[in-house]
TrEMBL record:
Family designation: Belongs to the UPF0316 family.
Keywords from the named record: Cell membrane, Membrane, Transmembrane, Transmembrane helix
InterPro entries: DUF2179, DUF5698, N-reg_PII/ATP_PRibTrfase_C, UPF0316
Name of the featured protein: UPF0316 protein TEPIRE1_0655
CDD domains: YitT_C_like_1 (cd16381)
Main location: membrane
Source organism of the structure: Tepidanaerobacter acetatoxydans (strain DSM 21804 / JCM 16047 / Re1)
Residues covered by the DUF5698 domain: 23-79
Length: 173
């Protein structure tokens, strides 16, 4: 009985691990980090084959398949959670606001801000464009919420950036 439970646990943990790694590997590919993705993929496939071997060699036990599927589902959740906590890469935030002081508050945080004049249904607006490391996103969103809870905010994943204030400030860190 203990051997069966250990086998189920091995399948579950292996599947959670390999699917979590697959999520991270995919994100590294999207962000142009092929070498890191390759290294992650190496370990991912070893773990995957180990779990799959355990399930295929025990096809007479349907619980193996259920644990394998549960590990897959859990791995997707865990991979997303881990990626969110690592917050690798860059993001671009576009803020549409009527507040004049928001731009200087964001610049005081050390971020470059490009300001465009916009015209909305209800008049003139400022469109602020900010590129920043994803790890800093929550701080920026807090400042926006505290100073203009009516601002319209869009967040876009940034694959790469070149030049400008952002590049200079990243070198200083």
């Amino acid at each position: 009985m203990l051997s069966l439970l250990g086998g189920y646990l091995l399948i579950f943990i292996a599947r959670v691990s390999d699917v979590s790694l697959a999520t991270l590997r995919t994100l590294m590919i999207v962000r142009g980090k092929g070498l890191i993705a390759g290294c992650i993929g190496f370990f991912e496939v070893i773990i995957y084959i180990t779990a799959l071997n355990r399930v295929v060699s025990g096809l007479d036990n349907p619980i193996n398949l259920l644990v394998y599927a549960l590990g897959f589902a859990t791995g997707n959740v865990m991979g997303s959670f881990i990626e969110e906590k690592l917050a690798i890469g860059l993001t671009t935030v576009q803020i549409i606001t009527e507040q004049d002081n928001l731009c200087s508050l964001i610049r005081d945080m050390g971020f470059g801000v490009t300001v465009l004049e916009g015209k909305g249904k209800e008049g003139s607006k400022k469109v602020l464009i900010v590129s920043l490391p994803r790890k800093e996103l929550d701080n920026l969103l807090n400042v926006i919420e505290e100073n203009d809870s009516t601002a319209f905010v869009t967040i876009m994943d940034t694959r790469a950036s070149k030049g400008g204030y952002f590049k200079r400030t990243m070198k200083d860190k």
